[in-house]
Amino acid sequence: MAKHQMKAQVIEAFNSPYVIKDVPKPEIEDENEVLLKLHAAGYCHTDGMMCSGQCKPDPPKFPHINSHEIAGEIVALHSKPSKYAQEYNIGERVISTGRPFHPCGKCFECLDTTRPGYDDGYSIVCPHCSFNGMSKDGGFAEYVVVDARQVARIPNNVKATDAAPLSCAGITIYGALKKAALQPGQRVAIIGAGGGLGHLGLRFADAMGYRTIGVDAADGPLDLARSLGTKADIVDARTTKVEELKTRLGQEDGKSVREEMGVDAAVILVENQKGFDFGFDLVKNHGPCVVVSYAEAGFRISSRDLVYRDIRVVGTILGSIKMLQEMMDLVAKNDIRPVTTVLPFEKLNELVEEYNKGKGGKFVVEMALQCQ
């Protein structure tokens, strides 16, 4: 392979398998950019959507390199690095979120200092930025260029294969829990607790001091949620009715008024109406219902409950980069790890097959592994 070439797993058309190709090695062109040598990269639900053509106009062209769940080592900086890039050194291990690659630093999002955990002079939701693995090439390759404003350091006691999924699934559920604005000792329900985000949410909630109700409705995810050893109360929504659960929680809390019974907040990770209703109905009066999933048909919401119970329905996307580093420090301190299926880089198509079996957890390719 030529000096300026690298191996990459690419898609050449929608609904087609990944193919290993020799492609040009990316080069640093901007003062904010850093070049990473990949150690691990995750396969996310969004990758599957993109490969099936559900994320148009992305990718902008074929062939395309997926993955926005990136963990690697910094191997190069710009000759005149920006103040953001100067915070990092060659040899440091980092994770990179999908966004924001080249945020503009000028729009209302980048200049907004009112949101909790806002970043200094840029935003992860800048409408003008690019997205690793979506609008630009991502992490299923030996090297990738990312923006210094979209990375966080990996603590020494965290493996790259554990870190990579945290750059998307981890920060998404952590950001949702932060959005709920609970205090230690308050109760949160995670609807979809046995999935890729949900199982991390159970572990984060423990570390944050919350009392947690983990809800799911399939055997595999429920088994995964129960296997984690968290303090969460795991509930099968197929056999437990919301009113029964609210009554039990009310009795545990010494409450006799229905509006005081239930959870202080719910996080919705599922894409079906039944799951949404379970979480929405479980929330006490005045509580937030934090929606992470985006069901194609949307959700129907009771305006009566919005008005008379003062339930707040809010959305969330990821979290700030400042929050990302905060999350990684929490992970290191509390030994939080995702449940992962890890295969060598060359076996990405087999990893996708495992993902499609719906067994739960996160799915990662590791560059250092060799095919047997």
From TrEMBL:
This is Enoyl reductase (ER) domain-containing protein. Residues 12-365 form the Enoyl reductase (ER) domain. The keyword Flavoprotein does not apply. Transmembrane segments: none annotated. GO terms for molecular function: alcohol dehydrogenase (NAD+) activity; metal ion binding. It comes from the Eukaryota. GO terms for cellular component: cytoplasm. InterPro entries: ADH-like_C, ADH-like_N, ER, GroES-like_sf, NAD(P)-bd_dom_sf. The lineage of its organism: Eukaryota, Fungi, Dikarya, Ascomycota, Pezizomycotina. Belongs to the zinc-containing alcohol dehydrogenase family. Keywords: Metal-binding, NAD, Oxidoreductase, Zinc. The keyword Zinc applies. Its cofactor is Zn(2+).
